[in-house]
Amino acid sequence: MHSSAITFGAAALFLTAAPSALAAGPRPECTYEVNTIKPTDTCSTISAWSEVSVSTIESLNPGIECNTPGMGVSSVCLQQILLPCTLNATAWESTCNDLAGEYQLSTDQFVQLNDNVNAACSNLIAGEPYCVSTAECYPGNHVPYC
Predict the structure, then answer these.
(1) Range of 54's domain?
(2) Which of 13, 74, 91, 116 supports an S-S bond with 24, CB 3.0-4.6 Å?
(3) Which of 9, 5, 8 lies closest to 82, judged by CA?
(4) Which CATH number characterizes residue 54's domain?
């Protein structure tokens, strides 16, 4: 079995805008999403009732067409959270199959936890650390309160 380097994290960080550049780690997750977009909605109308600025709506929703009725989307994210990585493991190959499997993660989950990993999970660098959990209690953690 391969050994893994372990690092523990702190509390969650709420984002009101998309970060300009993240270090390797979890990708932001939408925590407040509006799924009832009307054909007449624009970023301005959503901003008016949600009190989230148009610029924040634009930054949280890449590709949104703010001035087009319906905005060209089926849902709009109004708030994101960035959970800190609580457990890092060192990669020993360029794909995530073994590393993700060791921590009971699907490829999609592993990619979500690592913003520097491509969707095919094929660009890992052997010897580099990757996030494998944002939970305080994760598979394999033997801390008494877990």
Answers:
(1) 29-82
(2) 116
(3) 9
(4) 3.10.350
